[in-house]
Amino acid sequence: MDNNDRDEVHNCVIKPRANPQRRREKVYIGCGAGFGGDRPSAALKLLQRVKELNYLVLECLAERTLADRYQVMVSGGDGYDSRISDWMHVLLPLAVERRTCIITNMGAIDPPGAQEKVLEIASNLGLSITVAVVLEVALENSGLGSSTKKSYIMEGGKSTYLGAAPIVECLEKYQPDVIITSRVADAALFLGPMIYELGWNWDDTNQLAHGCIAGHLLECGCQLTGGYFMHPGDKYRDMSFQHLLDLSLPFAEIGFDGKVYLGKAEGSGGVLNFSTCAEQLLYEIGDPAAYVTPDVVIDVREVSFQSLSRNKVLCTGAKASADSVPDKLLQLVPKWFQDCGWKGWGEISYGGYECVKRAKAAEFLVRSWMEEIIPGVSNRILSYVIGLDSLKAARNDYDTSLWNASSDIRLRMDGLFEQKDQAVQFSKEFTALYTNGPAGGGGISTGHKKDIILEKKLVRREHVFWRTGVKHNKTMNSNNQKVSIKEDLLENHALKEPVLLPMAQEHHSDFLSSDIDIFPAPSGQKIPLYSVAHGRTGDKGNDLNISIIPHFPTDIERLKIVITPEWVKAVVSTLLNTSSFPDSDAIDKRDKWVAEHVKVKIYEVKGIHSLNILVQNILDGGVNCSRRIDRHGKAISDLILCQKVVLPP
Known about the structure:
- By secondary structure, this protein is of the alpha+beta class.
- Helices cover 29% and strands 24% of the residues.
- The strands form six sheets. Strands 1, 2, 3, 4, 5, 6, 8, 9, 10, 13, 14 and 22 form a twelve-stranded mixed sheet that branches.
- The N and C termini lie far apart (67 Å).
């Protein structure tokens, strides 16, 4: 890192930009990754197909990623996402040729380490590039008057969601080919280049609001363009396997006036329309009147979408909330030394005649064996039957009629214990089912691990610090070598027609949901909610949000009558069953806990004629410590949509 940048540390107080320049009338920004498990080849396809792209953003950090990378780093491994090597090897040659700047948060706990790796890869590819970094720093009083000690490894792996300002500084000072960040809010990764290119200032809050919503939608990746949307048998969400195979990652065209056009590559599969955009708009949002980002608080209640073609959607209606700038930022602090608990788990399969009853017997035995050794521990154990009720989407009442329909199941039991030896003991007791349990059980797997709990706190902006830096490489490779490497890479990742397996070719539907005639839902008869609406779920800590988006917009008025906080509580209460075989006492205890602790708020989002439901304290502590198979609660959308409702006239 250049020495002249080492001492320039900023806090997060928003300061007006001095004479911001409008460099473009509009900027094109693509999403190359929506999470750490996305596919580099898909990002390359977007680069190849959309030649206008000025920026490509790789959003790859989850809430717990920095804590995980901190553990790896103190054990001698990489503090950054080591998969950055794969991404840069694939993307750099074409991105450098097109002058498309790559922005990514794959730096995790160690952006300078990632910077060195990317420069090494570029040198091996024969590319001369500039790589900038953004990182949060800790300023600690060293005891020597006003002197300070600077460190970029945050103590214990804690991290704060930074805004777009550090990215803007990188672009202004360095004009880099790549920017690597630590924790930066997802939308801010996209907002930074908008501010830089379009000449926005920090008090242009309505433009910032539109830019943040564009970033919020783009960071969802292929979920915006048909991924996680296709649903065979649902006429509103069906699409062919071919369309799903050839999804395009999304991009956006943003004008200096804040106008946002969302797009997917011409000729690509998937679907980009009102419905896909509406689902992602509400993803992980609580109060739609106050969606808080580090740069601006946004009111999304009037946001709407207009399909201009199969590949282009206009997004309008975002605006800054009355309190447009948050004075505090969200910080995540791993609680390494707090007694967070140890997880122990086990799985076993049963099949054929009365397999569910055998799973019930196995659960009874393991709970009883644990009680013999550690009295009272059974209430720390959760169990469910995969193939029967593990997702709670097929039913919301205790119903033995489903048992006979199941002939291939897997019992899973998860415990959250105070001590490691208790988790280990649980694994041992579960394994004993091989010789001490009911007949025909097989495929046992067990394990245990220490949980990382992330404490969330709000920190004043003036107490959060960041800095940037830059490094360049020099390559000795000739132009001939550079061309050869690029041609080899592009040949290996060249656009090819998707090849369908025989099973995929059996699904012949080529229609998209925008082609379906839509009518009001019938009244006075019991119908599944999915025939009236679609939606999805998102998680934030121990809270869940559920969007309900009617296929026919005016049905929202009738849905508001049916979907009440009481209705929602009754539906989701089954998620808190600690067993697949609850007795009446267990159900009464569950319902009492729900009444006391589970809170439901329902918000109307008029721009997309939808409801956003916020359910608090429903996710078994949240993704970092949940004992459920679906720790994020993503499958809960089908629990909701499978419910039968009777709409009034």
